[in-house]
Design a protein that fits this description.
By secondary structure, the protein is an alpha/beta fold. About 45% of the residues lie in helices and about 10% in strands. It has a five-stranded mixed beta sheet with strand order 4-3-6-5-7. Strand 1, helix 4 and strand 2 form a beta-alpha-beta unit. The chain is built from 13 helices and seven strands. The structure holds 7,8-dihydrobiopterin and fe (iii) ion. 7,8-dihydrobiopterin binds next to helix 4 and helix 7. Fe (iii) ion binds next to helix 5 and helix 8.
Length: about 290
């Protein structure tokens, strides 16, 4: 996220947080949340990594209506020391990393309108809270997210934010995980989307490739359509280990001279679960 000079929105604190104002949500807002929640939890049951469903239970997110961040943060704090804070939308990278490094997940407080039920570009409260928060109740993933924030603060100094944004994109937002009985979803951008929750696992179109940090940091991504490639990790513990054990500075230097990889690239060195047809992407562009 290259930061154009982002103006701090009216009423936001120095760290860009704003009050959630839970009592201002309308009955229609709560109904939209309940509709999305019921539809996603039903279709995710055998698709999503079990730790996600466990997170919904631990955080008691099956209660009706939009979660109140104070109550949600109290339960989340007990589980892994994280809290959820409201922000107006995308915050500047350095601030975003600082929040994560301090176990604060920044979430939008607005919810999509009924006509945006199936897709909206910017993250709303359903994407942020249903998509991202349940896995923050999992210790290994919670530690990874904090390590990502700390890495981001370092990357900021090294001008390598774009590399880390790719790591975030292909794991936290659109990651898949391997289990003995097949692949499962865990990326928030997938699990909060009805269409992509099917596409990412079932459709022959996208590549599904083994997670490889260096390779992934060279790979471009799309923000306005389903992904053309998904990366598969073996476990959150492994993702955490690779993140905390990697000294990113020499890695960034090594990547310096290497060209980016296209969103649909497949390398001879890739661990290939699916070599996609890219039929979806072709249909979209034709
Ligand atoms: N701000 N609110 C918010 N949410 C994000 O997911 C987010 C952000 N700012 C920057 C950002 N993500 C990414 O570009 C970083 O990974 C670089
Ligand atoms: Fe997100």
């Amino acid at each position: 996220m290259a930061d154009a000079i982002m103006e701090r929105p009216e009423g936001a604190a120095a760290d860009w947080t704003i009050p959630q104002q839970w009592d201002r949500y309308s009955a229609a807002d709560h109904a939209t949340w309940d509709h999305l929640f019921a539809r996603q939890s039903a279709m995710l049951a055998d698709r999503v990594v079990p730790q996600f469903m466990a997170g919904l239970d631990i955080l008691r997110m099956d209660q009706p209506g939009i979660p109140d961040f104070d109550a949600l943060s109290e339960r989340l704090m007990k589980a892994t020391g994280w809290q959820v804070v409201a922000v107006p939308g995308l915050v500047p990278d350095a601030l975003f990393f600082d929040h994560l490094a301090n176990r604060r997940f920044v979430a939008g407080r607005f919810i999509r309108t009924p006509d945006q039920i199936d897709y909206l570009q910017e993250p709303d409260i359903f994407h942020d809270v249903f998509g991202h928060v349940p896995l923050l109740a999992n210790p290994a993933f919670a530690d990874f997210m904090q390590a990502y924030g700390q890495g981001g603060l370092r990357a900021d100094g090294l001008g390598a934010i774009a590399r880390l944004a790719r790591l975030y994109w292909y794991t936290v937002e659109f990651g898949l995980i391997r289990q003995d009985d097949g692949l499962r979803l865990y990326g928030a951008g997938i699990v909060s989307s009805y269409g992509e929750s099917r596409f990412a696992l079932d459709d022959p179109s996208p590549n599904r490739l083994g997670f490889d940090l260096k390779r992934l940091m060279r790979t471009q991504y799309k923000i306005d359509d389903y992904q053309q490639s998904y990366f598969v990790i073996d476990s959150f513990e492994d993702l955490l280990r690779q993140t905390v054990e990697t000294d990113f500075a020499p890695l960034y230097a090594e990547l310096e001279g290497q060209p980016d990889l296209a969103t649909d690239a497949v390398l001879p060195t890739d661990r290939v679960f699916t070599h996609g047809t890219q039929a979806h992407a072709r249909a979209i562009t034709s």
